[in-house]
Design brief:
The protein is mainly alpha-helical and 145 residues long. It has a domain of 94 residues. The protein has six helices and four strands. The strands form two sheets. The chain has a two-stranded antiparallel sheet with strand order 1-2. It has a two-stranded antiparallel sheet with strand order 3-4. The chain is elongated. One of its GO terms (molecular function) is endonuclease activity. This is Endonuclease. It comes from Clostridium hominis.
Protein backbone atom coordinates (compact mmCIF):
# COMPACT_ATOMS: atom_id res chain seq x y z
CA UNK A 1 0.00 0.00 0.00
CA UNK A 2 1.21 3.51 -0.83
CA UNK A 3 1.35 6.14 1.90
CA UNK A 4 1.66 9.91 1.97
CA UNK A 5 2.22 12.61 4.57
CA UNK A 6 -0.68 14.86 5.48
CA UNK A 7 0.17 18.46 4.60
CA UNK A 8 -1.79 19.65 7.64
CA UNK A 9 -0.64 17.52 10.58
CA UNK A 10 2.22 15.50 9.06
CA UNK A 11 0.73 12.10 9.90
CA UNK A 12 1.41 9.14 7.62
CA UNK A 13 -1.84 8.06 5.91
CA UNK A 14 -2.81 5.80 2.99
CA UNK A 15 -2.61 7.69 -0.31
CA UNK A 16 -6.29 7.14 -1.15
CA UNK A 17 -7.56 8.60 2.17
CA UNK A 18 -8.14 12.23 3.16
CA UNK A 19 -6.72 13.01 6.58
CA UNK A 20 -9.16 13.65 9.42
CA UNK A 21 -7.53 17.01 10.22
CA UNK A 22 -8.18 18.26 6.68
CA UNK A 23 -11.83 17.22 6.86
CA UNK A 24 -12.18 19.06 10.18
CA UNK A 25 -10.42 22.15 8.76
CA UNK A 26 -12.79 22.17 5.80
CA UNK A 27 -15.75 22.01 8.17
CA UNK A 28 -14.37 24.91 10.22
CA UNK A 29 -13.81 27.03 7.11
CA UNK A 30 -17.35 26.34 5.90
CA UNK A 31 -18.81 27.26 9.31
CA UNK A 32 -16.91 30.56 9.23
CA UNK A 33 -17.99 31.23 5.66
CA UNK A 34 -21.61 30.43 6.45
CA UNK A 35 -21.57 32.57 9.60
CA UNK A 36 -20.30 35.56 7.60
CA UNK A 37 -22.80 34.98 4.77
CA UNK A 38 -25.77 34.83 7.15
CA UNK A 39 -25.79 38.61 7.29
CA UNK A 40 -26.44 38.60 3.53
CA UNK A 41 -29.64 36.56 3.74
CA UNK A 42 -31.59 39.16 1.76
CA UNK A 43 -29.04 39.03 -1.05
CA UNK A 44 -29.02 35.23 -0.99
CA UNK A 45 -32.82 35.20 -1.22
CA UNK A 46 -32.70 37.67 -4.11
CA UNK A 47 -30.25 35.52 -6.10
CA UNK A 48 -32.59 32.53 -5.69
CA UNK A 49 -35.74 34.45 -6.66
CA UNK A 50 -37.69 33.69 -9.84
CA UNK A 51 -37.42 37.33 -10.93
CA UNK A 52 -33.62 37.26 -10.75
CA UNK A 53 -33.33 33.89 -12.49
CA UNK A 54 -35.56 35.11 -15.34
CA UNK A 55 -33.72 38.43 -15.59
CA UNK A 56 -30.36 36.66 -15.52
CA UNK A 57 -31.29 34.25 -18.29
CA UNK A 58 -32.65 37.07 -20.45
CA UNK A 59 -29.54 39.23 -19.93
CA UNK A 60 -27.08 36.42 -20.65
CA UNK A 61 -28.98 35.61 -23.84
CA UNK A 62 -29.10 39.28 -24.86
CA UNK A 63 -25.34 39.63 -24.31
CA UNK A 64 -24.79 36.42 -26.35
CA UNK A 65 -22.92 34.88 -23.41
CA UNK A 66 -19.88 37.03 -24.22
CA UNK A 67 -17.59 38.86 -21.79
CA UNK A 68 -17.72 42.32 -23.38
CA UNK A 69 -15.14 43.72 -20.96
CA UNK A 70 -12.60 41.16 -22.22
CA UNK A 71 -13.60 41.89 -25.80
CA UNK A 72 -13.06 45.66 -25.62
CA UNK A 73 -10.17 45.83 -23.15
CA UNK A 74 -8.07 42.84 -24.26
CA UNK A 75 -9.46 42.25 -27.78
CA UNK A 76 -10.37 38.64 -26.99
CA UNK A 77 -13.70 36.98 -27.64
CA UNK A 78 -14.46 34.70 -24.68
CA UNK A 79 -17.54 33.23 -23.08
CA UNK A 80 -18.66 34.76 -19.79
CA UNK A 81 -19.37 32.94 -16.56
CA UNK A 82 -20.87 35.38 -14.04
CA UNK A 83 -23.47 38.10 -14.39
CA UNK A 84 -22.15 41.16 -12.55
CA UNK A 85 -24.03 44.16 -11.14
CA UNK A 86 -21.97 47.17 -12.22
CA UNK A 87 -23.53 49.27 -9.49
CA UNK A 88 -23.46 46.75 -6.67
CA UNK A 89 -26.66 45.26 -5.29
CA UNK A 90 -25.89 46.25 -1.70
CA UNK A 91 -25.44 49.90 -2.73
CA UNK A 92 -28.14 50.27 -5.34
CA UNK A 93 -31.00 47.83 -4.74
CA UNK A 94 -33.37 49.68 -7.07
CA UNK A 95 -31.16 48.66 -10.03
CA UNK A 96 -31.11 44.97 -9.04
CA UNK A 97 -33.11 43.89 -12.11
CA UNK A 98 -32.08 46.75 -14.41
CA UNK A 99 -30.51 45.05 -17.43
CA UNK A 100 -28.41 48.11 -18.26
CA UNK A 101 -26.63 47.56 -14.93
CA UNK A 102 -25.69 43.93 -15.71
CA UNK A 103 -22.64 42.71 -17.61
CA UNK A 104 -21.51 39.14 -18.22
CA UNK A 105 -17.90 38.40 -17.21
CA UNK A 106 -15.42 35.56 -16.97
CA UNK A 107 -14.64 34.49 -13.42
CA UNK A 108 -11.13 35.98 -13.67
CA UNK A 109 -12.47 39.36 -14.81
CA UNK A 110 -15.16 39.30 -12.13
CA UNK A 111 -12.50 38.85 -9.45
CA UNK A 112 -10.30 41.52 -11.06
CA UNK A 113 -13.17 44.01 -11.12
CA UNK A 114 -14.08 43.39 -7.48
CA UNK A 115 -10.42 43.96 -6.53
CA UNK A 116 -10.60 47.32 -8.32
CA UNK A 117 -13.83 48.12 -6.48
CA UNK A 118 -12.11 47.37 -3.16
CA UNK A 119 -9.10 49.66 -3.78
CA UNK A 120 -10.82 53.02 -3.48
CA UNK A 121 -14.00 54.87 -4.35
CA UNK A 122 -12.21 56.59 -7.24
CA UNK A 123 -10.99 53.27 -8.69
CA UNK A 124 -14.45 51.80 -8.30
CA UNK A 125 -16.08 54.66 -10.22
CA UNK A 126 -13.41 54.45 -12.93
CA UNK A 127 -14.05 50.71 -13.37
CA UNK A 128 -17.82 51.22 -13.42
CA UNK A 129 -17.40 53.80 -16.19
CA UNK A 130 -15.28 51.33 -18.19
CA UNK A 131 -17.94 48.63 -17.80
CA UNK A 132 -20.78 50.97 -18.85
CA UNK A 133 -18.71 52.06 -21.88
CA UNK A 134 -18.16 48.40 -22.86
CA UNK A 135 -21.92 47.87 -22.84
CA UNK A 136 -22.48 51.07 -24.85
CA UNK A 137 -19.93 49.99 -27.46
CA UNK A 138 -21.55 46.56 -27.76
CA UNK A 139 -24.92 48.23 -28.24
CA UNK A 140 -23.59 50.63 -30.88
CA UNK A 141 -21.52 48.11 -32.82
CA UNK A 142 -23.66 44.98 -32.56
CA UNK A 143 -27.10 46.19 -31.45
CA UNK A 144 -26.77 44.27 -28.19
CA UNK A 145 -28.13 45.48 -24.93
Amino acid sequence: MLYKRCSGCGKRIPSNIVCECQVNNARKRYKEYYKNRRSDREQQAFYRSKEWLRCRQLRVTTLLGIDWYEYYVNNKLVQGYTLHHIEELKECEERALDTSNLIYLTQANHIKIHKEYAKSFKDKKRMQNILFKCLEKAKDEFGIG
